[in-house]
Write a structure and sequence with these properties.
Chain A has about 300 residues and is of the alpha/beta class. Chain A folds into two domains: about 190 residues, P-loop containing nucleotide triphosphate hydrolases (Rossmann fold, 3-Layer(aba) Sandwich); about 90 residues, 2-Layer Sandwich (Hypothetical Protein Yjia, Chain: A,domain 2), CATH 3.30.1220. Chain A is about 30% helix and about 30% strand. Chain A contains nine helices and 14 strands. In chain A, the strands form two sheets. Chain A has a nine-stranded mixed sheet, with helices on both faces. Chain A has a five-stranded antiparallel sheet with strand order 10-14-11-12-13, covered by helices on one side. In chain A, a hairpin with a 4-residue loop joins strand 4 and strand 5. The longest helix of chain A is centred in the N-terminal third of the chain and has 13 residues. The two termini of chain A are about 30 Å apart. In chain B, about 35% of the residues lie in helices and about 20% in strands. In chain B, about 50% of the residues are buried. Chain B is built from 21 helices and 25 strands. In chain B, helix 2 crosses helix 9, helix 11 packs across helix 12 and helix 19 runs antiparallel to helix 20. The radius of gyration of chain B is 24 Å and the shape is globular. Chain B has about 550 residues and is of the alpha/beta class. Chain B has three domains: about 55 residues, no CATH class; about 130 residues, Roll (Diaminopimelate Epimerase, Chain A, domain 1), CATH 3.10.310.70; about 240 residues, TIM Barrel. In chain B, the strands form five sheets. In chain B, strands 1, 2, 3, 4, 5, 23, 24 and 25 form an eight-stranded mixed sheet that branches. Classes of the chains: A alpha/beta (about 300), B alpha/beta (about 550). The interface between A and B is medium-sized, with 28 and 30 residues.
């Protein structure tokens, strides 16, 4: 089943900039995952002509093997059209007024797809005003509440005091996104979803990562508890696992994680954890490593 | 060419909706226009100068201005009308009146009757109108009992869910292996809803949107529109599905000599923007559309925009205290995008029709209208609030102050006020849906529409709801907001003409206007108000040509 990630957020929160950045970064190297990006408005998408292989109707094929489709409010037809096209991930840009959880339901309904997280872009500069707006206040609250992981944009335009107030007010994990630059590893389930996929290593100084490899067979019940208790700074975890009940792909976005039965993967366990770099994160990751060794 | 002969139609009474001469005895017509409304005696100077004939076929009837539905969706109707109606409320259709099926047994019996009457065992049978409040639970096994092999597709009245039998699942190639454990699809019961509905509809589309099916649907719509007594309707979102395909089909099916009505076409700005790439390009296209006008099909300077979500789905955006269960409505267009599009059309002099269902939608429309009035004042700007489900008295005053009009779907009150009082928003606000008396009291140009297929395309039925405010469970809802029969008649004639920008030509009966009449057996202004919806419609006259209405009953 193809993982489907929803990118939500109100107008001006930076969804399009994030998608532009992602498509450009995936085009920079070979061997990156092939993904399909479903958007609502071509007008806003800015793809370098050099990266375009073919432009046909509402679909742009990129030299990287990715495609970008303008779905014009018809997500269902787009999902039908993509079935069997063997993309490693579908990223759906929700409309600015959509409730992202509703969009994510498509991944539970449409055969061939599974949900892989709700990311919501938040305009750090304006979100406090937006939450008070009589027409969109409820919507902004709902979008933030429904997110597994928040992408904070325009944080650089906010002074330090307000940054901390904002972070404290958010109900869920949040990563900073400057000018659309966000690691593909944060956005996508697809990296590390196959044994030979490259792990994007050049995470910005915002993150610290932990790679964990082991030949041991883990204990399933202890693994579940471990995943439930993943500490707050961990924003992403993914990879494959062998435990006493089988082989699994792990996907974790923010506070949500899933284990999917896996076949055709190498022996052992191979995981990457991406955490926000804060005071204490290094110790936290050491603790995680220690905990993993005890599973 | 010799001057056409004058035709004079004497009537038991003529209700003109022209305040300077409210009642008359006869109408004289030359070609497609009225030359005089009055008495046979007052018309004598015309008779002295021109040949005339007296056509007394309507002499025992009442002539009123041709009915106008200022908001209807031919495209959606064309999809629905080929289906079989099995409904909890009565629908008068040209090919028979659908009597209410009010119990689970009645519903299934009627489906079985319809199914048995279809000869070809492979032909799919489409049913529309199921509603759990009346018809109990529905399921694949229940439909299989009627016939498991022929595809049977049962649509919910709201169009937001459907049920399929074994035959339909097979016909659509939907298998248990594929959807067995997916969310929003209940495969054992053949039930598809929310995203699951989209999944089934994608499979159904090739069948229900096939050009021959669509043409058949439009042919039926022609009959429905005539049957309701209309001589003008407005398509209040041309291009909802596919602009070019809709326009082509309308030209083929509606622009024909046997069509007894005209259609005002109001394009959907959001769809135009999507297909043309920008609001500016969409505006340029909208401005060019009148060049394509035909005799019956007319684009002008009206444009449709959308604010909040569907009323039937409880997606109307509400101000405090919102819905009882705490859920929130939705915006169809983000407020900023709506403002952007509205400003472009406002500054280009267009008449904006804004879809609003909840009082927060009305509030947004008012705030934006006030802003645009501040930036660039316009008079007689034709801004119209469409649907107007929930509102507050204060908003009605603001609508009046800003010079806007209201085109209301009053049928919401009939069909939904009971359910919304109990499960949606409480009695106070549910009983005050379609706040129409306040609109008239504030001098607002107020029209009624069907939004067909949301309500029956029967202007007299809408007038009946507006005058009596009796809902489907026979409760009186918001008696203070009842309007008079005369106001209701204005709302389906002259006010509807004003809303679509054609009051100079149609909507009342006076010298110089188009000879469009609706001919009634009884007088709508003096009859018992509870009888309004049952007044037989004898005929319409469209541009001087009579089109009798044959009534057949099932």
């Amino acid at each position: 089943m193809t993982p489907l990630t929803v990118l939500g957020g109100y107008l001006g929160a930076g969804k399009t900039t994030i998608i532009n950045g992602l498509l450009a970064s995936l085009a920079q190297a070979t061997g990156n995952p092939r993904i399909a990006v479903l958007i609502n408005d071509f007008g806003a998408i800015n793809i370098d002509a050099k990266l375009i292989r073919k432009h046909q109707g509402r679909t742009v094929e990129l030299t990287s093997g990715c495609v970008c489709c303008d779905i014009q409010d018809d997500l269902g037809s787009a999902l039908d059209a993509l079935r069997g096209a063997s993309f490693e991930q579908v990223l759906v840009e929700a409309s600015g007024v959509a409730y992202p959880a509703k969009v994510a339901n498509y991944a539970l309904t449409w055969p061939g797809y599974r949900p892989a997280g709700i990311l919501v872009a938040v305009d750090a500069l304006n979100v406090e005003d937006q939450k008070k707006d009589k027409f969109i206040g409820h919507l902004i609250d709902a979008q933030i509440t429904e997110a597994d992981l928040l992408l904070l944009t325009k944080l650089d335009q906010l002074d330090c005091n307000h940054r901390q107030t904002l972070r404290d007010s958010l109900p869920t994990r949040a990563v900073r996104v400057d000018h659309g630059c966000v690691d593909a590893d944060i956005l996508l389930a697809a990296t590390l979803s196959r044994p030979d996929s490259p792990v994007v290593k050049d995470h910005s100084d915002q993150f610290r990562t932990l790679d964990y490899q082991s030949d041991r067979i883990l204990d399933h019940d202890r693994l579940l508890t471990f995943l439930d208790e993943l500490p707050e700074p961990v924003v992403r975890a993914k990879g494959w696992i062998h435990d006493n009940q089988g082989a699994w792909w792990l996907q974790s976005v923010g506070k949500r994680w899933t284990l999917e039965p896996a076949t055709a993967i190498p022996d052992g366990t191979n995981l990457v954890f991406i955490a926000l770099a804060k005071p204490g994160t290094g110790a936290m990751l050491s603790g995680l490593k220690h905990a993993l060794q005890g599973l | 060419m010799p001057e056409p002969v004058l035709t004079v139609y004497p009537a038991r009474s003529v209700i003109t909706m022209n305040p300077s001469l409210p009642r008359a005895e006869a109408v004289a017509v030359r070609g497609d226009r009225i030359v005089e409304v009055g008495t046979l005696a007052s018309m004598q100077p015309w008779f002295d100068a021109h040949e005339h004939i007296v056509d007394d076929r309507f002499s025992s009837n009442v002539i009123v201005p041709g009915f106008i539905d200022p908001h209807l969706h031919p495209t959606m109707a064309a999809v629905l009308l080929p289906m079989n109606f099995v409904t909890a409320t009565e629908w008068k259709l040209p090919w028979g009146t659908v009597s209410p099926s009010m119990t689970p047994e009645a519903f299934l019996n009627r489906v079985a009757e319809i199914e048995a009457a279809v000869e070809n065992p492979e032909e799919p049978v489409f049913i529309w109108g199921y509603h759990q409040l009346w018809h109990g639970s529905m399921s694949r096994p229940l439909l299989n009992k009627i016939n498991a092999t022929r595809p049977i597709i049962v649509w919910h009245r709201s169009f937001h869910e459907l049920y399929l039998n074994d035959g339909a699942l097979k016909f659509l190639h939907i298998t248990e292996a594929e959807v067995g454990n997916r969310k929003q699809i209940d495969y054992p019961n053949g039930h598809f809803f929310e995203a699951g509905l989209g999944y089934a509809v994608n499979r159904l589309n090739p069948t229900i949107l096939a050009p021959e099916k669509y043409a058949e649907g439009l042919e039926r719509l022609k009959q429905v529109v005539h049957f309701g007594g209309h001589t003008t309707i407005a398509d209040m979102a041309t291009g909802l599905f596919d602009f070019d395909a809709e326009w082509l089909m309308l030209k083929q099916v509606i622009e024909r000599d046997d069509t007894p009505f005209r259609v005002e076409l109001v394009p959907d700005a959001a769809r135009l923007r999507a297909s043309k790439g920008s609001n500016e390009a969409a505006l340029a296209f909208a401005k060019s559309l009148p060049e394509q006008n035909t005799h019956r099909l007319r684009f002008s300077d009206h444009i449709k925009l959308f604010a909040d979500g569907a009323f039937f789905s409880q997606l109307a955006q509400l101000q405090e205290p919102g819905y009882i269960d705490g859920h929130h409505g939705e915006w169809i267009t983000p407020p900023e995008k709506l403002e952007e599009a509205m400003r472009i059309y406002w500054n280009a002099g267009f008449k904006i029709h804004l879809h609003v269902t909840g009082d927060l939608g009305v509030e947004l429309g008012l705030d934006l209208l006030e802003k645009l009035q501040w930036e660039r004042p316009r008079f007689n700007h034709g801004f119209t609030f469409e649907h107007f489900g929930f509102s507050t008295p204060e908003q009605v005053e603001r609508i009046a102050k800003l010079g806007a009009s209201v085109s209301a779907n009053v049928y919401y009150l009939y069909e939904l006020s009971d359910a919304y009082a109990r499960h949606g928003i409480g009695f106070e606000r549910a009983s005050q849906m379609a706040r129409l008396s306040a609109c008239f009291a504030n001098g607002i140009t107020t029209a009624l529409h069907s939004d067909f297929t949301m309500a029956p395309a029967e202007p007299l039925n809408n007038a009946w709801v507006a005058v009596n405010r009796i809902n489907s469970t026979e409760q009186l809802m918001g008696p203070e907001e009842r309007i008079t029969a005369e106001q209701a008649l204005a709302a389906i004639t002259i006010n509807a003409a004003r809303v679509i920008g054609r009051a100079d030509d149609i909507g009342s009966l006076r010298a110089g206007k188009k000879a469009d009449f609706t001919v009634l057996r009884d007088d709508p202004l003096t009859t018992d108000p509870m009888h309004l919806k049952d007044i037989p419609i004898v005929a319409t006259v469209f541009e001087g040509r009579p089109f009798p209405i044959e009534r057949t009953g099932r």
